[in-house]
Specification:
alpha+beta, seven-stranded mixed beta sheet, 8 helices, 13 strands
């Protein structure tokens, strides 16, 4: 990984690479691409635009804008600086370079940018059913979540037709103990076995069919334990490919579950993975009651 360099995206040619990158990474429609001119203008005026370079080729990037913390807009007695946050708009890495820690390095560079500019909070959204993103965002970076956004980006087309764009809105308090312990001292999340031994309650164990596709249970346990585990598919993309009806069941199941527990003051604070006795990969969020 020493050959991959993280640095600002500045030239016109590199900015144009970012448009092509978006099309390749997400197979999106050209109308959905964030234009190079928009990214350049925002970066020039204080936003963040970093590329991951393999030689002269941009193989990944991260783009963020400075915004305001939700809920403080009416505080006219508060200086503007106290309301500022960094909103991470988009981050991606070419498929051939994924799984090599490049996304993690881009996020660490984003944290350094926030610290240099006196910003304590970085926020962004992601699909809560994507375990790879959950592992990075919650498990490795130390972000937390207590907000669930229904159909945040509206209806999708193509292979995702009928699957609502529900998102976690997560908070990364970059000066806090949780973030510092993960990115500074490299504290690892607790294992599934450690969590179960500590009487963490699993509230929605997945059920597997003959083809090995995990499906959510008919309902979830309502618990008042300090720590609970919420299972999600270890590979949601594979579930969508194999059975879109099951993917929609996961969306509906976890939407009700997370909204229920967030309303009851639980917060997503960690993420755990394991290989079960059948050799199947499993993935779990850890929810904590009032940061207990």
């Amino acid at each position: 990984m020493a050959s991959i360099i993280i640095r600002p995206v500045e030239s016109v040619a590199d900015l144009q690479q970012l448009e092509r990158l978006q099309l390749t990474i997400w197979d999106m429609d050209e109308m959905e691409v964030v234009p190079a001119r928009t990214m350049h203008a925002i970066a020039y005026n204080g936003g963040l635009l970093l590329g991951a370079y393999d030689g002269e080729e941009v193989i990944g990037f991260i783009f963020a804008v400075i915004g305001t913390v939700q809920g403080l807009e009416q505080r006219v007695d508060q200086v503007a600086a106290a309301r500022l946050q960094l909103y991470s708009t988009i981050m991606g890495v070419l498929p051939a370079y994924q799984g090599q820690g490049i996304g993690y390095r881009l996020k660490l560079a984003q944290r350094e940018f926030a610290l240099r500019n006196g910003l304590r909070l970085v926020t962004w959204t992601y699909d809560p059913l994507e375990s790879r993103n959950a592992w990075l965002n919650i498990g490795k970076l130390g972000a937390v979540c207590h907000q669930y956004l229904r159909n945040f980006h509206g209806e999708q087309g193509g292979i995702n037709a009928g699957l609502s764009t529900d998102r976690f809105y997560i908070e990364w308090w970059v000066t806090g103990n949780r973030a510092r312990s993960r990115v500074g001292r490299g504290r690892r999340p607790l294992s599934y076995e450690q969590l179960i031994a500590g009487r963490t309650v699993l509230i929605n164990e997945a059920e597997f069919d003959e083809a090995g596709i995990p499906a959510p249970p008919a309902t979830f346990v309502e618990s008042d334990a300090n720590l609970i585990l919420v299972e999600i598919p270890s590979d949601f993309q594979a579930v969508k490919t194999q059975d879109m009806d099951v993917a929609r069941e996961w969306r509906a199941h976890t939407r009700v579950l997370f909204e229920h527990y967030f309303e009851h003051k639980y917060i997503v604070t960690d993420f755990a993975r394991r290989t079960d006795e059948e050799g199947r990969e499993r993935a779990y969020y850890v929810l904590t009651y009032r940061h207990a």
